[in-house]
Amino acid sequence: MKESVELLKANKVIIFPAETLYGFSCSFYSDKAINRVFKIKKRENTKQFIVLVKSFEMAKEIVKIENYKLSFLKKYNYWPNHLTIIFNSKIDKYKTLAIRYSNSKYITKLFEEIDFPIISTSVNYSNEPIITNIKDIIMEFNTQVNYINTSSPDGNGSASTIIDFSTRELKLIREGEVPYSKIKEDYNEFRNNNK
Predict the structure, then answer these.
(1) Does a cis peptide bond (omega within 30 degrees of 0) precede residue 80?
(2) Residue 68 sits in a domain of what CATH number?
């Protein structure tokens, strides 16, 4: 953990156990490190990565979250969770950002030592299968990143649900661990009770 913290603070690229899979990570504020992740993954830099935050307050530093959206997420305990939410960005170079307030034990512990958002993206080359075996990850990427944390991810291997909440309406981007039907049902109930 200490090495992960020090390298993230130094704007380096690491591989770490995210909620359910291993992920590339670096500081959200380091363009140099983010560009390096794009290069490692052989991915176009027009695509975005998920941004991990440690609190609602940290999320609000980089995205616009209206009060009613905050109230909904808190009332139904959707954050922290395996739920990624797209909001309108406060950062000029991004129109929207995909944010996850994670309840992973590892990420929660990591955020005890750092006070800035970090990016997270699956360990693979663009348009190729995600690599889940740590031995394969080490063999493929050991010389391309600054550090690989080999601890096991917390979850069951299923991806996070991704929803677009940049408008008043919810939109499903990817079905995952948190059922979209339940989110939609709760949101309709919330809106009916707060007219």
Answers:
(1) yes
(2) 3.90.870.10
